[in-house]
Amino acid sequence: MSVERHIAGLLQQIARQRDIVEIAPQGSTAKAAALAQVAEQYGYSYGMAYRTGFRNSLVQVRMYRDPRPDARVREAATITAHPQAGNGGTVPGLEQGSLKPLPEAAGAVAVLKDLVTFDVMALYIADRSQKVKGYLACAVLTVILLIDRSPIEAVASGGAVALLFTVACEAGAIRRRKIAQRLTAAGFLAVRDEQGSRRFLRPGQQLPGHANPFAA
To answer: How high is the pLDDT of residue 212?
Structure first.
């Protein structure tokens, strides 16, 4: 899908003043963050991100319409400044015909990218039960390999897979901790959702799903 179609599709949802808009660009989290920044200029606020589609290949971002007065002021100012957005005109915070952020929007897009990445990485961060299942799978693999390989080869192969699994888990956890540190430094607050997953919210914002997710 072209950049213009991504932007036009997002702005069509916004024009209908939906309480929730969905962003699902094909590509990187950077593209999703850039479009989320556009939605924020029209009075929406980041809600959550997750992977969907075939083999979880698609990043989907959910934005919520912010009912607070300053959000409506921001929306009105954006509509005035970008009357042809979605019809070939300028789009708030992005270079013409591109999802590349303008210098003045780069910081906001970077924060949104961290929020998106933190949420979608939850799918790949193994908890204790997942780690147990992973190591059990490695043990089963070792037993299967014993059928047609020597014990040394089977144990070495199973151990190599277990090592790769451990490294992958730790690398993901380290990256997510660094993102959490950046979000905390940016003023976001860490909370736990109903499933016990860690999330980051702006001060005064509630978890998505409430009647008013932005009430104090």
So the answer is: 46
